[in-house]
Amino acid sequence: MSLWGGRFSEPSAAEFKQFNDSLRFDYQLATYDLQASRAWADALAQAQLLTADENAQLQQALQELQQGVAADPQLPLQSDEEDIHSWVEAQLIEKIGATAKKLHTGRSRNDLVATDLRLFCKAVCAELITANLAAVQALIKFAERYQAAALPGYTHLQRAQPIMAGHWALAYVQMLQRDVSRLKETQKRLDVCPLGSGALAGTTAPLDREALAHSLGFRYACENSLDGVSDRDFALDLLHSASTGMLHLSRLAEDVIFYCSGESGCFAMTDKISSGSSLMPQKKNPDLFELLRGKTGRVFGHQHALQTTLKGLPLAYNKDMQEDKEGLFDALHTYLQCLQMLTFAVPELSVNEAHAAQQAALGYSNATELADYLVSKGIPFRDAHHITGAAVLYAQQQGQPLEALTLAEFHEFSDTIGDDVYQVLELNYGVQQRSALGGTAPSAVRVAIKHANDWLHAAEAASKHVRQARLSDANKICDLIAYWADQGENLPRDKADVLQAIQSFAVAEIDDEVVGCAALYVYSTGLAEIRSLGLFPQAQGKGLGAELVAFLLWKARELGISRTIVLTRVPEFFGKLNFRLTVKDKLPEKVMKDCDICPRKHDCDETALEYLL
Hints:
It contains 24 helices and 13 strands. The protein is α+β, with helices and mostly antiparallel strands. The strands form four sheets. Strands 7-8-9-10-11-13-12 form a seven-stranded mixed β-sheet. A two-stranded antiparallel ribbon has the order 1-2. It has a two-stranded parallel ribbon with strand order 3-4. The longest helix is centred in the first third of the chain and has 37 residues, at about 110-145.
């Protein structure tokens, strides 16, 4: 069924229809088209452009279609409709007759497809964040397992300095953390609803577009109808995030391929993620990682294709924009699949620790330690660098490592070198010295793993139920604080205080309903306290309290806070979250601010705990 036939006196040619129709790929938007249509029907009813009975008919039919698509996502492909919008309308007419023809009142396929695509991108963006977090968790576990396993580090593909395998894995954790950050920024820019923009000039229907946007889960309605129907920046943002994420996966894959090679042999793969050769029986190939590397170019290409499509388009909608979907769908599916495969593959990797340690000691990787040793003896670094280079050249000519040179041989280059040089040239010595923040020493890696786990827990919380509080949450926050104040667990706070401190609060939601809150209070000394933590009884036992704490701890880290405290009657809860006991005497800020006005001041039964960031 065509949505535009009245103007035409003859049907489209079959050749043109095949070239023009998009159902073969935009059927993937069926769920979102039905979601948008249900919200639109409600909006039309509120504007009195549909009766209550007509809206009820439409809602029932749309729900039945949603159930059908959920059971068989390819259901629309059983028809010969032009696009997903035509399919929905045809199905509605078949179910409820003429009432279905009223649904399109005041809207266009232009604003509808822009809305569908945004809803799709929002859903996939959330999936990609979850998949990235799973990959981060797998890499952190690898880092924990091999935090003290030596590995040769390279620059210019030449052995450079020893590193810990855990340090190597955490480098990719950092990259994936940035990928999550990029996706979250993309989510924010996605959160704008174009529905109600019409074809390009807006709708004549007297709708509350902000309410319509909120009913679809968007934060805002777009403020310009021309931009609303023609904007595809959100798709480019998501493709950019996917391309950068794939770039990181490709780099990781290249490292793994190299470390698994016969020339390196530092890593090993299980048979689960390896393949063989049809001719050479000895081969064990890293095909999974080669595919991660190979699929990256495919995602890059889709980003460039959409940029090229959009670069010369005038406002507003043009049929060229139909080309925004196939590449976007494929790129996002590819990225998601690659993240999932990485998460599956990392636990199947192992470090050949003894061999890797031997490899890490080769290539004169302790030369920098010799230069640093000379500096510690008072020799300027530039001179120390020259002396070390000459010693390395001599050792190479002798076919010996630096540590095999005799003291007499060392004296040929500098009389400053003593017997104590040999301990400096040992593999573990140099690694252990790199204990500063960000270094490869096992002690630094342990700190980095803790920070990575803290970030992961906060990011998981933010991707599930927890978010920064907004002014509109103030009433719910006050209700929560009042409830627990009545139970004697919290100090009461009035609404003015909550509004003034709204930036310090985080809230937990279930089905878009605020069911918990907590605040991060920062004292003038730089100490922070987690307080006003509470959940409504029906929300307890779901892990939301731990998510709120994790979210606020990460917020404290971002603020540069090094110590966060809590006073509680449930110390075991915070103990499970790695808080440790402290004493109130170490918390003069808290005592002065709240304890003096607490009705239980002289009979306090709260336990003080702290978390060092």
